[in-house]
Each structure stands twice: as structure tokens, then as C-alpha cells.
Amino acid sequence: MSEFEDFRAGFVSVVGRPNAGKSTLLNAMVGTKIAITADQPETTRRVIRGIVQLEAGQLIVVDTPGLHRPRTLLGERLNDMVGEALSDVDAVALCMPADEPTGPGDRFLLDLVKKTGAPILAVITKMDKVTKDALAERIIEISQMHEFAEIVPVSAVAGEQVGLLASLLLERMPLSPPLYPRDSVTDETEEDRIAELIREAALVGVREELPHSIAVVVDEMEERPRREGEPVLAIHASLYVERESQKGIIIGRGGARLKRVGRSSRESIEAMLGRQVYLNLFVKVAKDWQRDPKLLGRLGF
Ligand SMILES: Nc1nc2c(ncn2[C@@H]2O[C@H](COP(=O)(O)OP(=O)(O)OP(=O)(O)O)[C@@H](O)[C@H]2O)c(=O)[nH]1
């Protein structure tokens, strides 16, 4: 009998309108921080795979950028990524918040994911935000939308029913040996994850169009020997904005804001890597990068 005879492994697409709680759910399922979260909608830019390692199998979770009407080339690319993320999945988790009624965005997404032919599980996110009665009503409302494979209320923040959701998804995965090493949590590179942590820190408290103008690239990482103890990891990263005026906002009076961003991203990078790092952040202007195909490519889109 082979080691993985009853093992299941497959791909799950997590979809939902902006701010539905997809990234928080993904992090809770994986058990570590893979996707960054923020209060502003449309924080998620790239398709991130988180790998949920379970006793009896592996869920490769694809996090999709919130669907929205494309206004820029970046917007169009994001929507293309949603299409790619949806092809060839074994199950879809359609996230809808408990504290907001069903809207046209949810129905649009439902029609889109129906085309995959994969089982669709309705996930009612943020259940901690509503009363039991309100949740019961929301379940009824969602059950009338479509014949879902399951309707699962969860709270990623409180960790409620996240494990149940994972096992309901796993039941729908094909029998397969592990698709990724048993100890990996993502297929993102370390550089990408570091850049995302810096972007997350830079997003705190910024408003209007600025969040979409920020991109982060890790330029270089080097081991720096020290006279005593372990070497320190030096990270050089560039934080791009689209206009000179935005540079001032990011840097802040006397560099105070940039210092805060540097400190908090260094702390989260150290927590992720479990070691001390030295972070060197540069703020640069890449004029209108969201509309410039060459710059988009260079910034990793
Ligand atoms: N109370 C509560 N808040 C939650 C829960 N899950 C997510 N949130 C909050 O909802 C907001 C949006 O969460 P995200 O996970 O970034 O949402 P998203 O769907 O990935 O958003 P996009 O990147 O816009 O697609 C954040 O402020 C989260 O803290 C939950 O279970 N309970």
C-alpha cells in the first residue's frame, strides 16, 4: 500500500467581491500570513497560492484580486488574472460577507464561476459581525441564489469553522499524491512576500487613489557578516509611486512616515523569516506606471 493511497490534493479558487475577506480567510486556512490584508478594497494584486496542509491532503488555494470594472491597464490585467485563476480548479469558494446583503457583484461572480463546472461552496465570511438571527436570514438569502454544494459560515478573525471549510473543500479534491512539498505554505518567492509586507505597511492610513499607486520591488538581498553572532540579512527595496506629489505623502514630514513604514515592515519581515534583518527603503517615482506596459512588466505585473 502506498503512503498516499487516500491522499487528496487539488486547486481551490477563492473569489468574492472586494473586501469580502478572501485574504484573511486564506491566511487563516494556511495558518500563516500569505496574503496581505487592508481596510481598503482591492488590496490583492497578484494571484497568490497558499497551501493548506492537512493530515489527509493538500489544498492549493488561489487568491484572486477583487473583481472590478477596469479603469486602467492594471485593472484589465487583474481581471485577466481572475480568468486564469479560475480555469482548471477543483472547487470554488465564493465568499460573501455576513454583514452585507447580496449584490450585483456577487451574482456576476456566481455566473462567472458556474462556467468552471467545479463545485461551488458559498462561504459566508465575517460571521462574528452579525447576530445568530441575522446569520440565519443570510443563509436563507444565499441558499435562494443558487444550489450551492455547501453553505459554510466562517469567521477568519475568530478562527471559527475555518477547519470545517477546509475539510469540506478537501472532500472535493481528487485523489492525488501531494502537489507541493509537505512543509511549504506558498509558491511565492521570499522576495515577493517581503515586497508584499512592505506594501502592506505602506498602505496603512493612505487614502483615495494613492493605495493603487504604490508598488514595491525588492532590489537586492545580501548576507552581512557581523563581528559577533549570525550574519544579518540586508534588504534593499524600492517603493514606487506614480507622481512626485505622492512621494512627499509617503515620506512624510521630516521622513517620519517612511520611518514608521520601515520599522513596521521590518518587524513583520523578521517575524516571517525568524531572523534579524536590516531594511533599506527607497521611494521612487515611476510616472503613471499603472498605465505603462513596460513599467508594469518591470514591477512584476
Ligand atoms: N470581523 C471580521 N472582519 C474580517 C473577517 N475577515 C476579514 N475581515 C476584515 O475585512 C476587511 C477585508 O478583508 P480582506 O481579507 O483584505 O478582504 P479581501 O476580500 O481579500 O479584499 P480584496 O483584496 O479587496 O479583494 C479587513 O479589514 C479584514 O480585517 C472576519 O472573519 N471577521
UniProtKB/TrEMBL annotation:
Residues 154-156 are annotated as: G5. GO terms for molecular function: GTP binding; GTPase activity; ribosomal small subunit binding; small ribosomal subunit rRNA binding. Keywords: Cell membrane, Cytoplasm, GTP-binding, Membrane, Nucleotide-binding, Ribosome biogenesis, RNA-binding, rRNA-binding. It is a peripheral membrane protein. Its main location: cytoplasm. One of its GO terms (cellular component) is plasma membrane. Residues 63-66 are annotated as: G3. Residues 16-23 are annotated as: G1. Residues 8-178 form the Era-type G domain. It is found in: Cytoplasm; Cell membrane. It holds the Pfam family KH_2. SUPFAM superfamilies: P-loop containing nucleoside triphosphate hydrolases, Prokaryotic type KH domain (KH-domain type II). Residues 125-128 are annotated as: G4. Residues 206-287 form the KH type-2 domain. GTP binds at residues 16-23, 63-67, 125-128. GO terms for biological process: ribosomal small subunit assembly. Residues 42-46 are annotated as: G2. Monomer. An essential GTPase that binds both GDP and GTP, with rapid nucleotide exchange. Plays a role in 16S rRNA processing and 30S ribosomal subunit biogenesis and possibly also in cell cycle regulation and energy metabolism. Belongs to the TRAFAC class TrmE-Era-EngA-EngB-Septin-like GTPase superfamily. Era GTPase family. This is GTPase Era. It comes from Trueperella bernardiae.
